[in-house]
Every structure is written in structure tokens, then in C-alpha cells.
Design brief:
Elements: H1 16-65, E1 74-78, E2 84-88, E3 95-103, E4 107-112, E5 127-133, E6 136-142, H2 148-156, E7 164-170, E8 179-188, E9 194-199, E10 205-209, E11 217-221, E12 224-228, E13 232-233, E14 240-244, E15 248-256, H3 258-281, E16 285-286, E17 291-292, H4 299-312, E18 331-333, E19 339-341, H5 343-352, H6 354-362, E20 363-364, E21 369-370, H7 372-384, H8 390-455
Antiparallel strand pairs: 1-15, 2-14, 3-11, 3-15, 4-8, 4-10, 5-6, 5-9, 7-8, 11-12, 13-14, 16-17, 18-19, 20-21
Helix pairs in contact: 1-3, 1-7, 1-8, 3-5, 4-7, 5-6
Length: about 450
């Protein structure tokens, strides 16, 4: 359009665009400050998550120590590991058992008469080779052309094979009868013995293992003799699995595993210290710099640490045991709030009065008394619940603040955009007016100059 100005300030030679940008920059300062506030709140949310994770670690360990089954941990030893090894499950009765292994369970094996090579035919005509294991029979076909190796392969590839492995064995004699078919049951014990029902071959079979003695293991425990089909026996001593290795005698000792309980108590206190340190480090405020940690303005977490501290030091009445609070088994707190555990005192308590340590931590469920670990677990559950938990509520409060600041930024941005849209239009009009005045001035100057020239 004729007379229009394409660049703001071009008509007046005044940097109107620069003026607008400077005004905008000044008006943006409050928005920039609000965005900085938002970043601080987002850092706070991240720190909430970090603290929550560390407190969940404490809760997991407290929960474990609030269960009576934790104190049923057992350890087991064998006096002769060359004869047998053993494993034990939680809750097994403590004590010593004498074990004598009279015989190991074995696999049943059969060996055929010998032929010259693995590729020697072993049948005079067509027929079947049938065998049974544990009441299940299967068979393979043979023909006059079937070789020793082919029979072995047929048995191994039989989809109905009930549990036998065939192989061709060279006895090393170098004679015309050096190669034999060997059949071995896959499982040990008399129940898994192999029976050759139909032999449609020219081979004869001899039972190699299982003919002279039983294939079952024989073990005498505390004077009573048992037979079992395998060398892994878990149904005689309750909660104990014996792994037989050789014939001979050994004693098996089951004891309470208080070392594992001690390790769990130590781990719980270490986890508490890690969480408390995280809260303390991020709650500090530097008076000189005016800079505080992510939690410096949130009293909830300092209160939380104090309450957890009180729970760990709580005196539990009515237990009737040797210990009424955690200080009795070695717990103390340093001036900076760090929990310390005298492991020597703890170990002595677990050795001399393990049931009383259990009472202190678990409580007396029959009489409705909660122990320290039970109380701590419940307290941490309320703190760390994903919804309506203490930390979740704090996160919700901060989320609302961030949203409110978002709304504030949006409102301020819209207002400023409207303001500068209007200001830009006004500056365009000013620029146009000044340009017009400038042109009129230039015209008048030219007219005056022309008149002066004509007079001369």
C-alpha cells in the first residue's frame, strides 16, 4: 500500500523496534523468575522421589524383620562332605543326626553280547526289540539289515522311550566281539530298572548293574534304615535335604542361623542412616549464600526423621523378655542423628537370647504388642504409600504449586502479548505520523530554499 512502512522506525529513523524489545525484556523478568521457581519445585519433586526410594529400602528390611519366619532361618553342616552334603529350609528342627550311607542309588545297566563292529548286522530277520521301565513299555523294529549302531539310534530316537539311553561301546579287545550295545536307565532306583521283554535280535543281554544288589540307596539315620530311589533324599529329616556322595558315616547338624538375622538388622540400620543422611543433606540452608537444599523449606521431612528415630528407640512394654528397646541390643544415636549399632552386643544377644530379640523386633502377636520392626514397617508404609502417603501428599502439594505457576505464566504471557500487539500498532501509527511530518518538513524546506534562490 502506498505510504505504508514495512520496518518499524524506518519512517521516523527512530529505533522503535529496539524500544519495544527492551520493554519486552523488562516485562519478561517476572516470568523468568517464576520459571526459575518452577525449576526449584521440580528439583524438589525429584528429591522427594529419591528420599521415597531410600525409605522404601528401610521399609523392605523392617518388614523382613517384622516376620517371625525370619528368625526361623537355619544353617546346616556335614562332618564328612565326601560322604554327603546337605541343605536346610527355614523352620527345620535344630539338632544333630547321625547318618550312615550303606549304598548309593544307581542306574540299571545292561550289556549285549559282542559283534565285530558298530556296523555289524545284529538280526537274522524282521522283529521287534521291546523294553520296559517303571511299567511303561516301548519297542523298535529290527530287520536283517539292522546294525548295532542303528539299533542304538532307534532306541534313543524312540518318541515313546520311557527313560533309557543306548550306546555302542568298544571294549578295546580288538576281537570279533569287541562292540556291545549298552542300555542304561536315565534315573536311579529299583523302580527304574530296565526289563528286556522281546529281543528280536541275535544279541544276548547281561544285567551289569542291578543284578547283585538293589539299585536303591540305603541310608541309616539315627539307627533307622531307609531305602530311596535317588541319592537326593528330602523326606526323612523334616526340612533337610541330603545329597549322598559316597558310602560312609557323617553327622548332620542343624542350628539356628542367627548370623543371617544379625546381617538383616545391620542392613536395616544402614538403610535408615542412608535415608536420614539424604534428608539431612538436602535440608541444609546456608545463611551466608542464602541457598538451601531441595528440602530446606519442607519441615515434613525433618519431622519424619525425628519420628523414625523415636520409633527405633521406642521402649516396648509387656514383652516379658530380656530386651525392652533397641539400645539393649547395641543401638545408639550420635549427635548428628546417625544410628550406630554395636555388632558385638547384637551378636551376643542373638546367641544368648534369640527368642527375646525376636520379641523385641516382631512383637507378641498373641497379646497384640507390636515390636520395633513391626512399628517401623507400619510407619514407613504410611509415609511411602503411593496414594495418600506423607510423601505422596507433599508431591501433590508441589504439583499444584507448579500448575498454579504454569497458569500464572500463561496468563502473564497472554497479557504481555496483547500489550505489545497494541503497542506495536501504536508505534506504527507514530512512525507513520513522524514520517509524514518529516516529509512535510522536507517539502517546506525545499520551498523556502527555492524562494531564497529566486530572490537572488
Amino acid at each position: 500500500m502506498a505510504g505504508s512502512i514495512s520496518t518499524l522506525g524506518a519512517g521516523s529513523s527512530i529505533d522503535l523496534q529496539g524500544i519495544i524489545e527492551k520493554l519486552k525484556a523488562a516485562d519478561q523478568v517476572p516470568i523468568t523468575n517464576i520459571k526459575a521457581q518452577q525449576l526449584q519445585y521440580k528439583d524438589q519433586l525429584a528429591e522427594f522421589d529419591t528420599v521415597n526410594t531410600k525409605l522404601l529400602a528401610v521399609k523392605t528390611k523392617a518388614l523382613d524383620l517384622s516376620l517371625s519366619t525370619t528368625f526361623l532361618a537355619r544353617q546346616i553342616s556335614s562332618s564328612q562332605t565326601s560322604v554327603l552334603t546337605a541343605t536346610v529350609s527355614s523352620g527345620a528342627s535344630t539338632g544333630i543326626s547321625t547318618v550312615t550311607v550303606g549304598r548309593l542309588a544307581k542306574q540299571n545297566s545292561w550289556q549285549s553280547s559282542g559283534v565285530a563292529t558298530a556296523d555289524t548286522a545284529i538280526a537274522s530277520g524282521t522283529g521287534t526289540f521291546a523294553y520296559t521301565i517303571n511299567g511303561t513299555q516301548s519297542s523298535v523294529a529290527v530287520a536283517s539289515s539292522t546294525t548295532l549302531q542303528q539299533l542304538s539310534d532307534a532306541i534313543n530316537n524312540d518318541v515313546n522311550n520311557p527313560g533309557v539311553t543306548a550306546s555302542v561301546m568298544d571294549d578295546g579287545t580288538g576281537t570279533a566281539t569287541a562292540f556291545h550295545l549298552v542300555l542304561v536307565s536315565n534315573e536311579t532306583g529299583e523302580a527304574n530298572a530296565v526289563t528286556i521283554d522281546t529281543n528280536g535280535t541275535d544279541l544276548t543281554f547281561t544285567e551289569v548293574q542291578g543284578l547283585a544288589e538293589s539299585l536303591d540307596a540305603e541310608v541309616t539315620i539315627n539307627g533307622i534304615t531307609y531305602q530311596r530311589a535317588t541319592n537326593t533324599i528330602s523326606d526323612i529329616i523334616s526340612g533337610v535335604t541330603l545329597n549322598l556322595e559316597a558310602t560312609g558315616a557323617s553327622s548332620v547338624k542343624v542350628t539356628s542361623d542367627m548370623d543371617s538375622v544379625k546381617a538383616k538388622i545391620v542392613a536395616m540400620i544402614e538403610a535408615y542412616n542412608a535415608a536420614a543422611k539424604e534428608i539431612a543433606d538436602n535440608s541444609k540452608y546456608d545463611q551466608d549464600t542464602g541457598v538451601g537444599g531441595s528440602l530446606s523449606g519442607v519441615s515434613t521431612f525433618r519431622t519424619m526423621t525425628s519420628q523414625l528415630n523415636q520409633t527405633l528407640l521406642a521402649s516396648i512394654g509387656g514383652l516379658g523378655g530380656a530386651y525392652g528397646n533397641m539400645t539393649d541390643i547395641g543401638l545408639s544415636f550420635d549427635r548428628d542423628g546417625t544410628a550406630s549399632l554395636d555388632e558385638t552386643v547384637l551378636a551376643a544377644a542373638l546367641e544368648s537370647n534369640p527368642e527375646d530379640v525376636q520379641l523385641l523386633l516382631v512383637g507378641d502377636t498373641d497379646n497384640g504388642i507390636d515390636g520395633v520392626a513391626t512399628l517401623l514397617n507400619a510407619q514407613l508404609r504410611d509415609i511411602t504409600k503411593p496414594t495418600l502417603g506423607v510423601i505422596a501428599n507433599e508431591k501433590g502439594r508441589v504439583d499444584q504449586t507448579i500448575q498454579r505457576l504454569d497458569d500464572q505464566i500463561e496468563s502473564m504471557t497472554i497479557r504481555l502479548n496483547n500489550k505489545y500487539d497494541l503497542l506495536t500498532k501504536q508505534f506504527v501509527q507514530l512512525d507513520t505520523l513522524l514520517s509524514s511530518i518529516q516529509k512535510q518538513g522536507d517539502f517546506l524546506s525545499a520551498q523556502i530554499a527555492s524562494l531564497s534562490a529566486s530572490k537572488n
